[in-house]
Amino acid sequence: MTTRPDRSTAQERTRLDLIRAANNILMRDGYTSLTVTAIAAESGYGRRTFYRYFKNRDALVYHMVVTWITALAEQAITRAQHLPTPQREYAVLQHILSGFYSNRDLFRSLSTFFQSPHGKRVTETMRQHFLSALQAGRLNFNNRVSNEVVSHVHAGGFSHLIRQVIWSSEMVDVDEVVREYFILTFGEEPPEFTD
User: Fold this and answer.
1) Which of 6, 9, 21, 119 has the most crowded CB, counting CB atoms within 10 A?
2) Contact call for residues 159 and 95 (beta carbons, < 8 A)
3) 190 near 178, Cβ under 8 Å?
4) Which helix (H) or strand (E) holds 61?
């Protein structure tokens, strides 16, 4: 007797197939070529299947972007968790900004997406993740104001830095950008340490 995978496993596999197909199209042909029809064809599923999992193309891209950002942030925080404040915060900022810089071509190709309602929700989602890390004590950017205020200020400021790093026509010194942001935030030079 053969066992069939349970429904949730099959559904998750289909969802991942659609996401992989979209990622392949994005990397190969860019955002303008990313259509529901193209995703369906690339994945081997029909349009109807696509719409069972995602409302539209931008909903899928939102899911991809948020998943990537969340994984990057979680990796950064986990890697730096053993460090004391402010070394931990510096290492997290460095890791995240470096991740965006190394993927800048992909994010440049998504410029139209970031103008859409789904794209504009990405910053708010980043803020919520940042707030959760502050509330859990995994990050500490300011003990004198509420975590809610800190999350708004830093999500906005860091989003601006990310755009600067992605859209600069010149080579960006990520270390210098993080250093300046750190000085602005903590009022002192970044700590010297090895990770």
Assistant:
1) 21
2) no
3) yes
4) helix 57-80
Q: Mind giving me the DSSP string for 66-121?
A: HHHHHHHHHHHHHHHTTSPTTHHHHHHHHHHHHHHHHTHHHHHHTTTGGGSHHHHH
The token pair at 49 is 């299947």
Task: Record the pTM.
Answer: 0.85
DSSP character at residue 122 = H
What are the CA-CA distances from residue 23 to residues 9, 86, 149, 178 (Å)? 21, 36, 35, 29
Q: Count the alpha carbons within 13 Å of 49 in the hemisphere toward its beta carbon.
A: 20
Write out the chain's pLDDT in tens, 195 residues.
555 557 789 999 999 999 999 999 998 999 999 999 999 999 999 999 999 999 999 999 999 999 999 999 999 999 999 999 999 999 999 999 999 999 998 898 898 898 889 988 998 999 999 999 999 999 998 878 999 999 999 888 888 889 888 988 888 999 999 999 999 888 899 987 655
